[in-house]
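Now for a chain:

_____
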Amino acid sequence: GAKFSVDSDITLYPQFGSQTSMESSNLTSSVQSKNFFMLNGGFTTLPDYSYGLTYAWVKRAGFYFSAMSNFKFRFNSDYVGDSSGSVNGTYPLYLGKKEYTKITATTGLMIRFCEPLYMYLGGGYGYRGMYYETVGNEWVAIQGNHCIYHGGVGEIGLIGNIYGFSLSLGLSVITDLHNYYPEAKVGIGYCF
């Protein structure tokens, strides 16, 4: 039990180093786990945007999972063109309409630097394709010219949390080992 001393006014004080003061210091030094739910937006130098969700759990270290898409899911084309737009040596009549398909899924490590600041670092899989419409409602996927990427994704970023309100800023890069496609990523969310 706690040891007490008595002064002349009969006031009880816990002594330094007693069990009571050690118990209270152990309660304040424990780190509570945090859960993050965030809505994200991805932006590039092209007019090419994506949106998604991130969930993270962290104490001092933890994990996160993020999925992003532009919600256009064209993965196949009628033809494949080279970097000049030629399909088997001929040039189809392009109508000027383009569709981008972008989807990424990443997971990784999240670290708490100090109470309001967290860092995440991870990887996963990503796909970005650009397709052009031709006469007859046929679509051509252009190889080269940075039009189609699929392969690994690496990302890094920071999350700030104040009173349960969270903001994030990061960079995500899709690469196929020959080309890369960077995307800035921002998010807003809730932490509990």
Q: What stands out?
A: Residues 19-29 form the longest helix (11 residues).
